[in-house]
Amino acid sequence: MPKAERRVAVRDARRSDKIAVPKMAELVAERIRSQIARSEFKPGDALPSETVLMERFGVARPTMREAIRILESESLISTRRGSQSGPKVRAIDASVLGRRAGLLLQVNGTTWEDLYEAQMVVEPRAVRLAAKRRTKADVSVLRELIERARHVVDLADFAPIAAEFHVALVRASKNKTLTMVVEMLHSLTLELYRTRMMSLRPIGEKVRSASVELYEHVTDRIEARDADGAEEVWSKEHPAVSDALGRLASEQGITIYHP
Q1: b/e burial code for range 44-56 (CB count within 10 A of at least 16 → b)
Q2: Does residue 259 register a pLDDT over 50?
Q3: Do 128 and 75 share a structural domain?
Q4: What value does the mean pLDDT of the chain take?
Q5: In the listed set 89, 110, 143, which residue is the last one of a domain according to the structure?
Q6: Strand residue runs (E) in the chain
Q7: What are phi and psi of 126, to 5 degrees?
Q8: Using CA atoms, how far apart are residues 166 and 127, in angstroms rounded to an integer?
Q9: How many structural domains does the chain have?
Q10: Which of 6-20, 84-98, 152-166 has the highest mean pLDDT?
């Protein structure tokens, strides 16, 4: 390789090895974020005053204020003008994460079919765990949602119940990671079901009755702690019901976003 090309290659290699150094405000925000994650500051607690934080982290006021703005933009803290105390720690709101996740998915061109497919990968295993770990309270929640679904008049009112039933199934698994993910995506799944229910209104009674029957079947298996049966219901019967409704809709000239 000629010397000139070697020099260019070396310069390129050096450029690719450069490490981006975080801004001081980002480092301070990360320290406070870690303290919140470790519950050193709990929801409702006030952080120390701006002056105390500046002294603690050894930073100037503009840097400290930028760190506070970062945490506020993440909905981790809230500030009030004129308050004598420091910013208050907020309870983590999964809906905020859900909105951000939804925006990211939409920017990346994610479709409703993609979200539905992800549900069908995750939920059967979560349902299996639910059958092993459920409490009486979990079963009561599922039964209550079934009763609400049984008595809806307008299929549009069924959408939030359907979305919440899916979330309740995963909550019963007692897996914190899975629960956080489905709660975070709850607003997206709600929109998923709302869109589908609106398109299926002409066959509303069939949709409602088929769904209620499916919900009862999986809840029976969960209550009986039948892990194999619960997983089979949700991995086989759920898609089968969806396919059957899709065919019925197609026969009546109704177009929906997935079978």
Answers
A1: eeebeeeeebbee
A2: no
A3: no
A4: 83
A5: 89
A6: 77-78, 88-89
A7: -65, -40
A8: 10
A9: 2
A10: 152-166
Task: Find the domain containing 69 and state its range.
Answer: 3-89
Same domain membership, residue 240 and residue 155? yes
Using the structure block, give the residue that is written with the tokens 């899709």: 246
85 and 107 both lie in a single domain: no
Does the pLDDT of residue 205 top 50, yes or no?
Answer: yes
Q: DSSP secondary structure string, 208-246? A: HHHHHHHHHHHHHHHHTT-HHHHHHIIIIIHHHHHHHHH
CATH classification of the domain holding 239: 1.20.120.530
Residue 180's pLDDT band, with cuts at 50, 70 and 90, is confident
Q: What angle do CA 211, 212, 216 make, to 5 degrees?
A: 120
In this structure, what DSSP letter does residue 85 have? Answer: S
Does the structure show a pLDDT above 90 at 234? yes
